[in-house]
Amino acid sequence: MACCLCCLFFSGQKVVSQTCVVSTVGLCDPAVDVSTETEVVNETFNEPNGITTIETTTDTITTVTTSNEDSGDILSSSSGFVTSSKEGDMDSDWGGEGPASMPSGSTCGDLGTDKCAEITGSGNNTSTMGVAGMGTTFKNTINLSSLSIDNGGKVNYTIKVSKEDASDRIYMHLTGYDGSTSTFSGTDILSESGVNSGYASYTGGFNFGGNLTSLIVEIGGRDINLAVGPMFDDVTVNVLYNVVNTIITQNITTIETFIALNIGGGDVVIDIAEDIFEHNDVVEVDGITIIEPMKGPDNATYDSVEIELNAPVIEAINIKMDTQTQGGDTNVYAEAKQEASIEAQLEVKAEPKETVIVKVKAVEEEVVEVVEVVKEEVIVKKEAEEEKPVEKAVVKKQVVKKNTQKQKQKVANKIVKDMGSKGRYDDANQFKTLMIMSVLADNKSFFSNQTALVDTVKLFSDDRVPDGVIDDNNMALFLMRYGADASMTALLDRQYR
Asked: Could you tell me the pTM of the whole model?
């Protein structure tokens, strides 16, 4: 039954920088924020033949990119937020509170000859947007929901004002909404009573946070002397807002490790591992572990291995020679250097004898014959003679011949087999195996001392080209240059022809 163990590890690494969040008021610095969260899960399974460990690493990478976007002038009809009657060029009255005028020509002064807006109300009231000291207002409401502003930003404005009466006043007021909820409200007094500002251009802005779905622009003031009130023209409003893009990616890496248990196998696996490390050098190169065989000793040489491979392979064949009796006569055949036959009547007194003939496989004819005569007493009956001992000759031939390449291979296989499964890791056996391969390949010169290269005497000369100027051969230069040109021209002409 398999068991599972699960371990969970968390680690986090974050790149810290200014991060734009919903609570941010104003513009964020453009940035790229990257955060990495690592989750490591280890699962262990106990199996009958080993232990399996699965390590799963999940890297969650969050990339947050913050940028600033510009809506453009929302008081221009080309932006799509207002109609031509609500543009900031003040060719039309926006509507609002109190009396107002839309003069043109020289009345607008430095504002241009086209139309401009004039504040003519002398009241001292509080506007619907909460600004005190108001006699006249111009009010414009703009829908900004298409921009999907939800991370704060800033609203900037510009306006041109002409105020000739120091006792008059004029202001710019902006209110932002998230639905029906006010997100920010700001008022700038462009020119207060008591200041003869004349013609001037004003810029300003207000920060906001969170969402922004609509904006109310209110321009107001009062005319005290009821002569020429404060005038304004060329109003622009730009919304700068933060855009935050978040990209989440995951990298999942799985590593499965199996540890085999030597259950029921004895110490075979362990012994083999020990032999490997005992007879091999374990080195580390550039962080990589390499197992290299140790250098073999000099106890095995080409000549010694060659003698061992030429050892004869002996095959023994047993031949049973039986004495046979038929009609009182016994035929006895003895093999000698020359064949001879003797007929006699034999009465066998002993058991059948067994002779072994040794045969040696060979190629080259180096033959040595050995004849052994074995005396054996038997009773020979002749019709008119007495019993006499007779000698029976048995010939044993032994032929010694050199082994063939096939027989050498057979001897080599036996030598390697006798090393055993464990002994093959022995450095001496490894070296001996290399010698066997060399003998079988008949490459004795592989282990011979190599002839050292001898440097050629006086390969380089001490002679030097004398200093000085080598005179030009003008004729040779002429022939080389113009002759080559002529040859090339002839070649090209021949090609095209």
From this structure: 0.48
